[in-house]
């Protein structure tokens, strides 16, 4: 029972240390090995890879070492460090960064200086500790000083400093753990892109305010780059005008389409109203027929009575003869003499009536 409690307390203590380390990694950059006391205090016994993968020993994390130049720190570097950090259940990742002197001597010139490369590594989330001025070839003294259990690197033989593989003795000692390279990304690839598109980046930096002297550009090339920048600006303006013109035409087409639809709707409505009013069975025809019938009734005369009423006789006057109001049909006179004779006869008749 007591042994079980002690084991539980040790596990809790280990979990607390791991939690504190995790929080520190997320809230602050990784420390430098020569500025802190980040050394394993527990007895450092040699481990096998099988033991480390089982999570042993319980009293300390497995110390994994990865080294490199890390120039122009990119995702391929970060993925390699992630693999090194996650090789074992409980691991502490130390990253060694070679100095400018060693790098320029054995590999070549770098874009970033050593201070910039150190800082880039300190801000990677997988790194627990950064070792500055790391050796090009790992020595037993260096491994013992930093209590390194395993070394992580890709399995491709790394020939340098007169050796076919600088990690050969680490592999023979059973301390090497391979990681996988990330295809399609490397520092050399990035530099190749910059060299290939040198003119583009030179023009870009000139446009952003860098001088030709800072870019190591000749006077003629500077004028050429600046002229090309002006040409590109004009092309961009023309492109913007074309795009705006296309947008304007599209808007006009949309509006014209809407107007045509509205016109068609209004025309259908107008034609329907016209047919309803003036069609064969329209209201206008009925109204016209009614008015026509009324006008015909108003223009046609009423029939006159056959006989007029008789006058009442006066006692003082003799009764007058009755006669018809209907006009008599007379034939026109055939000659002037006959006309004068008819006129005289009409006058005599009037005298007799008096």
Architecture overview:
This protein has 354 residues and is an alpha/beta fold. It has 2 domains: 27-184, HUPs (Rossmann fold, 3-Layer(aba) Sandwich); 188-293, no CATH class. Helix content is 53%, strand content 8%. The chain is built from 13 helices and 5 strands. It has helices at 2-27, 49-53, 75-85, 100-106, 114-122, 140-145, 168-172, 187-196, 198-207, 212-215, 219-278, 283-299, 336-353; strands spanning 62-68, 91-97, 129-132, 150-154, 176-179. It has a 5-stranded parallel beta sheet. Strand 4 (150-154), helix 7 (168-172) and strand 5 form a beta-alpha-beta unit. Helix 9 (198-207) packs across helix 11 (219-278). The termini are far apart. Residues 311-318, 320-331 and 350-354 have low confidence and may be disordered.
| CATH superfamily grouping of the largest domain | HUPs
Helical percentage:
40-55%
Annotation, overall tally of beta strands: 5
- Rg on CA atoms, Å: 60 Å
What CATH first level of the largest domain would be assigned? Alpha Beta
Which structural class fits the helix and strand makeup?
alpha/beta
Instruction: Count the DSSP helices.
Output: 13
Strand neighbour order, sheet with most strands = 3-2-1-4-5
Main sheet, how many strands, which sense, barrel? 5 strands, parallel
EC number: 2.7.7.15
Pathway: Lipid metabolism; Phospholipid metabolism; phosphatidylcholine biosynthesis; phosphatidylcholine from phosphocholine: step 1/2
InterPro entries: CCT, Cyt_trans-like, Pcy1-like, Rossmann-like_a/b/a_fold
Protein name: choline-phosphate cytidylyltransferase
